[in-house]
Amino acid sequence: MTDDPHAALRDAVRDLCARFPDPYWRDLDARRAYPDAFVAALTEAGYLAALIPEEFGGSGLTVAAASVILEEINRSGGNAAACHAQMYIMGTLLRHGSADQRRLYLPKIAAGQLRLQAFGVSEPTTGSDTTQLQTTAVRRGDRYVVNGQKVWTSRAEQSDLMLLIARTTPADQVKKRTEGLSVLLVDLRAALGHGLTIRPIRTMMNHSTTEVFFKDVEVPAANLVGEEGKGFRYLLDGLNAERILIAAECVGDGRWFVERASRYAKERVVFGRPIGQNQGVQFPIARAHVAVEAADLMRWRAAALFDRGDPCGAEANMAKLLAADASWEAANVAVQTYGGFGFAEEYDIERKFRETKLYQVAPLSTNLILAYIGEHVLGLPRSY
After folding, report:
1. Sign of CA dihedral 356, 163, 373, 127
2. What percent of the chain has pLDDT over 90?
3. Which of 163, 268, 323, 340 could form a disulfide with 250 if both were Cys (CB 3.0 to 4.6 A apart)?
């Protein structure tokens, strides 16, 4: 696109990603290893500090621009899930943290001296019903004492800090179930070995996710982010940016699948003709392309609203839903196009197939997005 306002940024990210080709990601996937070298390169280039204001050492980019970074990582065949959370997690600290917290942590995060990539929200017994979480943080003097368990806390082993949401007021003492939850900034370096245990969970994709156990873990009261009891509102406040950024990753995945399928369909000759000449192969690829491009339009609409400060809950959710569905459709088409070779590791289709499937489920399943649209956009009765 000659009129792409982010063309220079795209080119720069692509150049960086070219240093980490398919074999790099394939090897990491086989070993279920974290892409330390890639994340270090992103950090050095300033991309993980894209949304941190310049006054704190970041780039101060818009969400639209930041989304381009994640899109291009996935479009290159990489996996932005290894580091994307640092972009949107720090938004809670930026918007709701104290002046002292912002001065203390944001410059170090921007410089790569600290990693904030873990957000402790989900629990094994409550799933998506965050208001029913069981992890507690009890105030004792100048500290909170945390007890409980989190699950699907990705990148906890690669983070120095974690944003933790815990119940600070018992559920039976609040008027609304959304009250009494608070956000704490946990220094994982200090907590490990002092009541905090991190246990890796091996999954179908290389995602570096964990379950985290808290047993009388002490967190300084100064690490409370915002006001006590307002944590659920802070959590919701950061979701729109997350949805938009994840949608961009899915667009990147979708374009990668379409490009790989198109190339293979032109090169693979069976019965004396390229398989892409057959409508049974060509039309599904074309339909996948259309779906990805349509999802991308909603991604840009949501990003524009977000960056203007306008309400964008519906658009951000629709962007994530459309993009996740489009990338998953494109993944299936790519496997069908490659046939048996689509299952061979050396072609990378099966790896990316597994990676993009995640976005049908997390963060936030497609069904919950539909429930949100039904209730909050269409005015239908609450379904859950």
Report:
1. positive
2. 95
3. 323
